[in-house]
Every structure is written in structure tokens, then in C-alpha cells.
Specification:
The chain is α/β, with parallel strands linked by helices. It is about 45% helix and about 10% strand. A hairpin with a 2-residue loop joins strand 3 and strand 4.
């Protein structure tokens, strides 16, 4: 595994056999240490990390799990560091090292998971993110895109920290459209390819969906929030990934309108200013 001052990568692929999901999650997080900077992989308490990890395996067949061979770990580690270095050159990481935790993803996989290359990610804290990878088969292209997407989130949350106990910092659907749009445009610029979640809707369809959800723009995003779930993950007349695609087009057109603004300046901006200044939000529905 190559060493880097930019990132610390930890693989959470323990030796495990059996079918008990609780025991499996215990094994996954057993070696996650308490770090004074990031807590338990971005959570203040181990139980919070456990809760976030557990639901991802609710429908999985744990008996399909296999530890990741050292050769594959080295390949993944090199790929991650390579894409992180490209990200850092375009948008200097405000804090490093970045902490990257690699967990297994066991499915079950539907057509959307296959489109995403059996890779997904999550950023719980401003310099920490989790990457979930199928140990049997995954797309290197998707892994690169996921790393770039989560890197952008990690930088964004440094300048716009989330604090659920502070009402003034609560996030709305409008805010999430922007931060996901930022991450998807950054990903395209780094990897030279649009991801499936960015292109779920054409610009024309994104405009129509945007006008439909306008009454919900200032809805707070809460755990199990119905508006958030349906807009970003499908339901009630919204195609899956609608929110990501709308956000992508909002920020894409903002980037066209303000081409000289660096990513460092953009990531520090108030997301509401980006929303208001994007010509996309002024397009009339047809």
C-alpha cells in the first residue's frame, strides 16, 4: 500500500465466516479506532457508526462475504491515492490527511447498482468518507467517480459543517441539490465522464422536475424525510436520482455562467448564492 500525507486508507474487510449480520457488523467495525480528530470513522460514538453500517447489510447474504486479497487492496489503494491527488490539485483539501474507510458492499444488486459499478460512498464528516465496494466485482471507473464525489463533499463540509443541534445549520432540499450538484460537476471535471446519477434526467426533464418540487425547496432534510427520499432516491412520481440530476444541471449551468471561479472559491460559497445565481433556476417550465 503506497503511503501518502494526503490520505490514510483503512480497509475494513476482516476474516469472517457465518451468517449472523450483527456479528458481521461487529467484525467490520472492531478495528476502527477512536481518533481524536474524527472519532469513530466520522462518528462521535461507536454505536452511531454501527447504526449507519448495519442498515447497508439488512438484505444481504452475509455468507457471500469474502475478505479482500492483499493484491486487490494494493490495486484499490493505488487507484484511490491517484484520484485523490488529482482532486487535491484542482481543489486543495482544506484539512489532511483525509481518512478513507473501505467497507464491503454485498448487495443484493439491482440494475441501478450495476450502473453504479457496485461502488457507493458516504461522507459523515468533513475530512472522512466511507467507500463501499463489492469484493467480487466492481468498476474502477465507478470507484474513481465515487472518490471524486466524496472528496468534494469532504471539502464542502469543512466550510459548511453540519450540526443537527444547531437550527441555523439545518439543511434543506435546496441545500442538498447544490452540494450534490457540486460533487457531480467536480466528478465530471476530474474523471472526464458524467456519472449515471448526474445524467438520470436530461436538462429539459430536470427543469420540469425542478418546477414540480419547488414547493419543497425549503423543507428540512431529516432522518427518513419523505421529501428527501423521494426526490433523490425515487418515488411519488420522481425518477430515481432526480435530485442528483437537478443539482448537477443547476451547478453545471452556474459553472458556464461563472467560468473563472476556481473550485476553491466555489466550495466556500453559500450554496444559496450558487442556487440564486444559476441561470437554470430562472428557466421557465414548458
Amino acid at each position: 500500500m503506497p503511503k501518502s500525507k494526503l490520505a490514510k486508507i483503512q480497509f475494513c474487510f476482516p476474516k469472517f465466516s457465518g451468517k449472523n449480520k450483527k456479528a458481521f457488523v461487529d467484525a467490520l467495525i472492531r478495528d476502527v479506532p477512536l481518533d481524536k480528530k474524527i472519532g469513530y470513522a466520522g462518528y462521535s460514538k461507536r454505536m452511531h457508526l454501527r447504526n449507519d453500517i448495519s442498515w447497508r447489510f439488512a438484505n444481504s447474504n452475509i455468507r457471500e462475504y469474502r475478505p479482500l486479497p492483499n493484491s486487490k487492496r494494493k490495486r484499490i489503494g493505488k487507484l484511490i491515492l491517484s484520484i485523490l491527488q488529482k482532486c487535491h490539485r484542482k481543489l486543495p483539501a482544506p484539512v489532511f490527511p483525509l481518512f478513507v474507510f473501505i467497507f464491503p458492499w454485498l448487495g443484493p444488486f439491482d440494475k441501478n447498482d450495476r450502473l453504479m459499478g457496485r461502488v457507493t460512498g458516504f461522507t459523515p464528516y468533513n475530512n472522512t468518507f466511507h467507500i463501499f465496494v463489492s469484493p467480487s466485482e466492481f468498476s474502477s471507473k465507478s470507484l474513481r467517480q465515487t472518490i471524486a464525489h466524496e472528496f468534494n463533499h469532504a471539502a464542502f463540509f469543512h466550510y459548511h459543517p453540519l450540526n443537527p443541534n444547531n437550527q441555523s445549520s439545518k439543511q434543506t432540499i435546496r441545500d442538498v441539490l447544490i452540494w450534490e450538484g457540486l460533487a457531480e460537476n467536480f466528478t465530471k471535471e476530474i474523471t472526464k465522464a458524467e456519472s449515471p446519477i448526474a445524467t438520470a434526467l436530461t436538462e429539459e426533464k430536470a427543469v420540469k422536475a425542478f418546477h414540480k418540487l419547488k414547493p419543497m425547496l425549503d423543507t428540512w432534510v431529516k432522518e427518513k424525510n419523505d421529501a428527501y427520499e423521494t426526490i433523490f432516491f425515487g418515488g411519488s412520481g420522481y425518477k430515481k436520482w432526480t435530485g442528483y440530476s437537478i443539482g448537477y444541471h443547476i451547478v453545471r449551468i452556474f459553472r458556464i455562467a461563472y467560468p473563472k471561479k476556481s473550485w476553491r472559491k466555489i466550495i466556500m460559497m453559500n450554496p444559496r448564492w450558487i442556487f440564486d445565481k444559476s441561470p437554470f433556476t430562472k428557466i421557465e417550465a414548458q
